[in-house]
UniProtKB/TrEMBL annotation, chains A, B:
<feature type="domain" description="Pyrroline-5-carboxylate reductase catalytic N-terminal">
    <location>
        <begin position="3"/>
        <end position="107"/>
    </location>
</feature>
<dbReference type="Pfam" id="PF03807">
    <property type="entry name" value="F420_oxidored"/>
</dbReference>
<keyword id="KW-0560">Oxidoreductase</keyword>
<dbReference type="InterPro" id="IPR028939">
    <property type="entry name" value="P5C_Rdtase_cat_N"/>
</dbReference>
<protein>
    <submittedName>
        <fullName>NAD(P)-binding domain-containing protein</fullName>
    </submittedName>
</protein>
<dbReference type="InterPro" id="IPR051267">
    <property type="entry name" value="STEAP_metalloreductase"/>
</dbReference>
<dbReference type="InterPro" id="IPR036291">
    <property type="entry name" value="NAD(P)-bd_dom_sf"/>
</dbReference>
Length: 237, 237
């Protein structure tokens, strides 16, 4: 399969590396590849310049949003939530048509300081906003409720835990499930919340996630919905 | 101990019945006891009139907010979140001074239809608002992330799951912990998020809780933070 991962941050890199390791053809989309490769600074949160990562991941190719989307069968939105619509618009609606988009982003709003709040919230969500703006895209909100290392390696967190799905297209959710299984998520760990409207719930959990990170002092944790399934649903776990 | 449970809805009744069964002296606070007792209708969600419940719980006494608060050592806010400040104001700031308040309410906003959103959200929370309005009260936000039957009987949900604590007063949080233990919560199930500001996280999880209820078709579930503690932290569970 040909994947386009939009976003060159730590989430995009982690997902791209995983997809590459699974034998997929992966393009990372960015606004301006030359600009992305020219950056030399490490971010305040310790993320190394993209070029350093690129040198170690030669199987992944950097491209403009538009080229990445045109090339791919399957898209992943790993851009910062506040610029996701803009990034998808740059990819071009014609290149999104009929394709599945895994939306793993969160609409974190840093404009009022730290920790960030969310925007939109309550009566809208980033997942819905993307689906509404690009109606021919088949949006599945998933994986946004955990650290990116856990997304691609659920075994980092011992025991049973869940990944949520929200989306209006049943076939697209089936594709998303299959991708999650290939990342190591057991079948029973995938919890379908319903239509894309349920992304409101999955996104609004982020403020709790941020405070749990503060309280626990690490990011190797995840939500498990106890009572969601029968005991033993996770098999050998 | 003498408890005042503010709020005559299903949450207040369930908590009051549990406290009564544990041998505490319990008053339920309401604006106007005669009015509360005169209601005969069952609510749209199937909650029976208060008077019927009262007849079966003769150990619990109904009183005005002010009388209930004056009498009690320990308060529980089980009012609807949108009227909690008003209910506490009716209780009288003088009767709140130095007392611990367990705030189990959620600021659900039904003004834009169902499912409800939250107000406040992002840069404030009901827990903080109560603490700010009544600075001499020692507010602990807890138990608001689950159905009330699970609050008082955590064993309804098989396996490990968590109850969060948010509050600025360490002694008050210790008292809250002890009450939770008496409800059957194992020590390892109590997860201290930090100061009262962290109530923002615990409250913003409600939209996900509501969608989980929709997806699962029941309310006997709860959040477990996998990776929060070592394996076996729950002992025999």
């Amino acid at each position: 399969m040909r994947y386009a991962v939009l976003g060159t941050g730590i989430v995009g890199r982690t997902l791209a590396a995983k997809l590459d390791s699974l034998g997929h053809e992966v393009l990372i989309g960015t606004r301006d590849p030359a600009d992305t490769l020219a950056r030399t600074e490490t971010t305040p949160t310790g993320v190394a310049p993209y070029a350093l990562w690129q040198a170690e991941h030669t199987g992944v190719r950097l491209a403009r949003f538009e080229e990445a989307a045109a090339h791919a069968d399957f898209l992943v939105n790993a851009t910062a939530g506040q610029v996701s619509i803009e990034a998808l618009a740059a990819a071009g609606a014609a290149h999104l048509e009929g394709k599945v988009l895994l939306d793993v982003a969160n609409p974190l709003d840093f404009s009022r300081g730290l920790p960030p709040g969310l925007d939109p919230v309550n009566d809208d969500s980033l997942g819905e906003r993307i689906q509404r703006t690009f109606p021919a895209l088949r949006v599945v909100k998933t994986l946004n409720t955990m650290n990116c290392q856990v997304m691609v390696d659920p075994g980092r967190v011992a025991g049973e835990h869940h990944v949520f799905l929200s989306g209006d297209d049943a076939e697209a959710k089936k594709s998303a499930r299959e991708l999650l299984y290939s990342f190591g998520w057991p079948e029973a760990s995938v919890l379908d919340l319903g239509g894309i409207e349920t992304a409101r719930g999955a996104e609004m959990v982020l403020p709790l996630w941020l405070r749990l990170m503060g309280a626990l002092g690490h990011t190797d944790f995840n939500f498990h919905i106890q009572g969601a399934g029968g005991p033993g649903a996770w098999g050998g776990h």
